[in-house]
Amino acid sequence: MGRKILFITSDQQRYDTLGCNGGTVGRTPVLDGLAAEGIRYERAIPQSVVCMPSRSTMLTGQHPSTHGVWMNGVALPVDAPSVAAELHRAGYRTALVGKPHFEPFLDPFGRFVENGLSRAGVPTVTSPWADGTSGPHRGFEHLEFATHTPMGPLHYSRWLTANHPEATGGFYAVLDADLEVNAEGGGATGAPQVKDNPIPRDLYHTDWVADRTITWLDGLAADDDWFCWMSFPDPHHPWDPPGSEMGRVDWREVPLPAGYIEDPAERERVLDGKPRHWRAWYDGTLVSNYEAPTRWVPATLTADQVREVNARNAVEVELIDEAIGRVLAAVAARGWEDDVDVVFTTDHGELQGDFGLLFKGPYHVDGLMRLPLIWRPAPRAGVAPAVVTRPVGLVDLAPTFCEAAGLPAQPWMEGAALPVDDAAADAAGRTDRGVVTEWDSEVLGVDVHLRTITRDGWVCTTYRPGTVHDGGEGELYDLALDPLQQVNLWDDPARRSVRDETVEALRAQDRPARTPRLPVEAPV
Amino acid sequence: MRASVRREVVIEVGADEAWAVVGRPETLHEWFPGVVDCTVEGDQRTITLRTGLSLDETILTNDPLQRRFQYRISGGLFREHLGSIDVIALGERRCLVTYASDVDPATMAIVLGGATGGALDELRGQLEGGTP
Question: Per-10-residue mean pLDDT for chain A, 524 residues long?
Fold first, then answer.
């Protein structure tokens, strides 16, 4: 019997939202406990800072250049490599409950499998696999989906609409009348993507995801090996948690985050030290990607709005923590406690007030790139608790799942099993190699292309030619001396040798883009 | 906001052969993934999508000499729409098919870009007799 694997993801969650990572706004005792028993990673980095490419990396163990999902709206091919398929082939029962997002949500033609399963009333469909065989879609024999809203064709939306239609109207409308990300403000401060939602907690998607996960686990035999990806849509915007829970955190008491620069003149000076799309977005003169409201100007963001967004975010994080606690209790009730590896992470971060910005985009700094990652190996594996400070990537998850299952990593996987401590990371050459993050976007005539490496205490981003970049721009930050990445050293002559060495390390890992390039199917 | 997208495909058949499909608006559901039904009365076409959504269209151009088909979707998610399909001969057994969508709101242009690109891939697959 192998080790069972509970893979838990949230969506758009910062590193510093967990108590074990120094967070103070929300309480996360369950995840803090897992971190104490297992391995806590202090620099886990996504290979993309938006959902679809990052989730595709988790599933395939490949960088975006390789799996081909180069921006949101590009669908991961149905026959893409999948760690779930490898586990299923090895006899694992497999499920994904919650947010998938390997295929676009905005799909009026109903072209994509994810959007048709609930309506079809089937737990999965047979799809081609990467090795030329076929099996359950992407390797999952059970798929049950939710996203941030009660609109659309996914399981949660259809369930809520059919059984509790009165609860659907309280959610924030993620898209506006033009189907763009909504800029409308709400709550006490008028912050964008904020709304008071009267929905009862037990009908909200966080608890639904946990409930459906427990139901699936309850249907398994005691000696089944299983891989369950439990994927919470929160704390991604909109910030509209159940009203009954809003008393947990008083936004007026929330301290401003360290990355929020209160003085506008100082904030703008810092932004001006970065490549010019930073300031252009802040000023509202450039919208380079679909993931933030086009009609919202970041320069209008107030300190109170930052506080309210952070308070609501913390409430959502607490609800996730408690939902995980319920699922772990269900696992323990089945007698599986010693046999289950638990991995918790997210797909990317959230700026959440850093530099006076919200949401996400082509901005490769800690707000978006430093992720919570906890691996609690199955206790019977006897792995000692540790804290890993060396950089690791989400690209390392798929090989880690293989290792936990006693399977070899597949040749198409580009990462390696997560190190259990810093010594293991160093022995594997991770410190020299670093971790790469990619950004490519082309939206309505604006293209942006970044390549970033996190290595040896530095974060270095190079730019390729695009609408607002000539290809000579860059960013270089000293993570020890400048943990908020406010001083761009790219043009500092004293750091020229570090810059050259880091850029060389990045270029050595440059991967050819998949050809032909996969088409953009939708904005998201 | 309005936006314009264009997708294109080179197909290894003569332009007349490609036009024989494109110029028959009542057969759209046979080569456009996600369109499950299609009815034409005069210059009015109604298509039904796999999601159950129905779109009303007006056929503006169906010109076999230029090999150009144009139509407009009205209502629903669209404030403005113009779809244009052109079949251009590149040789005796080779043609270029372009599918352009001019749309307000812009978001729907991106969605239609994906859908029409999928349709062109399917058209090529059917006409060349292989996998799209």
Answer: 94 98 98 98 98 98 98 98 98 98 96 96 98 98 96 96 97 92 96 98 98 98 98 98 98 98 98 98 94 94 98 98 98 97 98 98 98 98 98 98 97 98 95 94 94 97 97 98 98 98 96 95 93
The residues of chain B scoring below 70 in pLDDT are 130-132
Residue A128 touches partner B, C-beta closer than 8 Å: no
Q: Which residues of B touch A116 (CB under 8 A)?
A: 50
b/e code A242-254 from CB counts within 10 Å (16+ = b): beebbebbebeeb
Asked whether residue B51 is domain-assigned, the answer is no
Please indicate, yes or no, if residue B114 is contained in any of the structural domains.
yes
Asked whether residue B54 is domain-assigned, the answer is: no
Q: What would the pLDDT profile of A37-54 be if each residue is shown by its tens digit?
A: 999 999 999 999 999 999
Query: pLDDT, tens digit, for every residue of A270-316?
Result: 999 999 999 999 999 998 899 899 999 999 999 999 999 999 999 99
* Structural domain for B70, as ranges: 3-24+60-128
**How many domains does chain B divide into?**
1
In a domain, B87, yes or no: yes
Check A179 against B50: CB less than 8 A apart. no
**CATH number for B95:** 3.30.530.20
Minimal Cα–Cα distance from B43 to chain A, Å? 22
ipTM: 0.95
**CATH architecture assignment, domain A4-255+306-434:** 3-Layer(aba) Sandwich (3.40)
| Mutation for testing the A interface, residue in B38, B50, B81, B112 having most A CBs under 10 Å | B50
Could you tell me if A183 lies within 8 Å of chain B, comparing CB atoms? no
Report the gap between the CA of B16 and the closest CA in chain A (Å).
27
B77: which chain A residues are within 8 Å (Cβ-Cβ)?
108, 179
Long-range contacts of A19-28 (CB under 8 A, 24+ apart): A20/A374, A21/A372, A23/A314, A24/A255, A25/A249, A25/A254, A25/A255, A25/A310, A25/A311, A25/A313, A25/A314, A26/A248, A26/A249, A26/A313, A26/A314, A26/A315, A26/A317, A26/A318, A26/A321, A27/A318, A27/A321, A28/A317, A28/A318, A28/A321
> For an interface test with B, which of A103, A111, A181, A518 has the most B Cβ atoms less than 10 Å from its Cβ?
A111
